[in-house]
Design a protein that fits this description.
Layout lengths: L2 E4 L2 E4 L3 E2 L11 H13 L4 E3 L13 H12 L8 E6 L1 E2 L7 E2 L3 H15 L4 E6 L8 H13 L3 E7 L3 H11 L3 E5 L10 H10 L2 E2 L26 H10 L3 H12 L12 H8 L8 H11 L4
Parallel strand pairs: 3-4, 4-5, 5-8, 8-9, 9-10, 10-11
Antiparallel strand pairs: 1-2, 6-7
Helix pairs in contact: 1-2, 1-9, 3-4, 4-5, 7-8, 7-10
């Protein structure tokens, strides 16, 4: 596993997005724990969760508690594992995703996450999404208060614009270590945010990083239709003898040294495959072929 910097911390170049382990269609607990353990075995040291990763209408924190149990039952060393959680969203019974970014809510949510994770301070705490009803500086100010109080060690923001990144950076300085936006071959709206993160030295954590890539790791060139925008990912995967998902994650790593993808997984074999992308270096010709369908490199 190669490593990248998140603030002054060294983490595995591929993280684990733990959300699939707790939302609709999640595996049973035994398989969920095995998936996290497989990630740790593969050298993954960044585990991304949130208090809102649970079934609609259920008690908040299912995913955080699951991650805590996985770490507690792991037989190896977990001293270098960074658990990143998020606050500011909810999941009512109708299955929607609400947003609450008031300082009072964020302070309360962070305290609850602390207890569920069973730690003295949260490694990385992220504002899940800006609340349009709350001044952004107020929400980020709550992160600063949590940092100053020692409740969280590092801060991040998610689903944000370049202006919001600059605003948060002005408030938090180098304690703002990450931006988590959707980014993949299919969804590249956050190209400006990725460039800004590279300029500021902030880690960029793409969520849903496999967008546009078939979920089947068995798909190869035979499954590529003429004119398929992302067919090159399958073709290069076939030539390399790996999955299209692994090629996609390696392509993301090549976008910028600040990128740390956090693919989701609900099976041990899936995260083992994803983790393999950290050691897969694509050559210039391969990157050119992939870029042709997914945009130029940053």
């Amino acid at each position: 596993m190669r490593y990248r910097l998140l603030g002054d911390l060294r983490v595995g170049a591929i993280g684990l997005g733990a959300m699939p382990l707790s939302i609709e269609g999640h595996p049973d607990e035994a398989r969920a724990l095995a998936t996290v353990h497989a990630a740790l075995d593969a050298g993954v040291t960044l585990l991304d969760t949130a208090d809102s990763y649970h079934l609609p209408g259920a008690e908040p924190g299912h995913n955080e508690q699951l991650v805590a149990r996985a770490l507690a039952t792991y037989g190896g060393d977990t001293s270098e594992v960074l658990v990143a959680t998020k606050g500011g969203r909810g999941r009512p019974a109708d299955g929607s995703w609400t947003v609450t970014g008031t300082p009072a809510h964020l302070r309360s949510a962070a305290e609850a996450s602390l207890k569920r994770l069973g730690v003295e301070a949260i490694g990385l705490y992220q504002l899940h999404k800006p609340d349009p009803a709350v001044p952004f500086e107020d929400s980020v100010g709550a992160l600063r208060e949590l940092l100053d109080a020692g409740k969280i060690r590092l801060a991040g923001i998610s689903n944000t614009t370049t202006d919001q990144i600059r605003q948060a950076h002005a408030i938090l300085g180098d304690r703002l270590v990450s931006v988590q936006n959707q980014y993949s071959p299919e969804v590249r709206d956050s190209e400006p945010e990725l460039r800004l993160c590279a300029e500021l030295g902030i880690a960029f954590l793409p969520w849903s990083p496999l967008g546009g890539i078939s979920r089947s790791s068995l798909d190869g060139p035979s499954g590529v239709r003429p004119g398929d925008r992302f067919g090159a990912f399958h073709e290069v995967a076939h030539e390399r003898g790996v999955s299209p998902q692994q090629i996609c994650l390696a392509w993301l790593l090549a976008r910028s040294p600040n990128v740390i993808p956090i693919p989701g997984a609900s099976r041990p074999e899936t995260i083992r495959d994803s983790a393999g992308a950290a050691d897969l270096v694509l050559d210039a010709e391969e990157l050119a072929r992939l870029d042709a369908g997914a945009g130029p490199r940053v």
